[in-house]
Amino acid sequence: MRVRVLLFGPEADAAGASEVSVDVDETPTCAALRAHLARAVPALVPSLPGCRFALNGEFAPDSSAIGEGDEVALIGMVSGG
Amino acid sequence: MSVEVRIVEGPLGPMVAAPADGAGAVVCFEGVVRPLESGDPIDALDYEAYRPMAEQMLERLGSEVCSRFGLMSMLVEHSSGRVDVGACSFRLVVRSAHRAEALEAMGEFIDRMKKDVPLWKRPVRSLSRTDG
User: How many CB contacts within 8 angstroms connect chain A with chain B?
Assistant: First the structure.
């Protein structure tokens, strides 16, 4: 399955893109996606441990399964206000 | 109890005085872009929001804080895009019966927003400064 991951802020700057797509196992979890991202985009490795995933606009634990068509976002350290 | 959230392009305009509507306290906080970021001069901040997650989280957080502190209403405004030094990029207006709960609620809302709501800012520096 191919998963499109939205990137923002420092993670987008590190990757040089506002989104990346990675090929993962069928019905991957967020934890598996984290490992795939580390291999596919080495520039994200330093910040990945401190990042959270959001699925369809809600923070999701690493155990969450990612389904076809889910909107996946990598949320690093936020800095609003 | 009502919560209103607005994410707007560019700097926020001046605050429009709202009727007290029976409130004993109307507290407004405005965040303004400072001329220094990590000690270095900047021209502006460029804000990025992950919509609609940011709007949904601000509304949810606002509702939680209003309920917890018994507030009458909350207005949240946050910029997206470029905001020059000296301009307003964030505004929080709280109405309540008394000032104590309004002031405490402001701090809690801002602390939680800065921890969880998907908003980011990047410093913008002019070429003349970076070359200099």
Answer: 54
What ipTM does this complex have? 0.92
Residue from B56, B115, B119, B120 to probe the interface with A (highest A Cβ count within 10 Å): B120
Spans of all domains in chain A: 2-75
Select the CATH number that applies to the domain covering A2-75 from these four: 3.10.20.30, 3.40.1160.10, 3.40.50.800, 2.60.120.10.
3.10.20.30
Q: For position B113, what pLDDT does the model report? A: 98
B17 pLDDT band (50/70/90 cuts)? confident
Residue pair B54/B118 in contact by the 8 Å Cβ criterion: yes
Residue B130 lies in a domain: no
Which of B18, B27, B2, B36 minimizes the C-alpha distance to B91? B27
Å between B24 CA and nearest CA of chain A: 26
Residue among B53, B56, B114 minimizing CB distance to A80: B114
> What predicted TM-score, i.e. pTM, was given to this entire model?
0.93
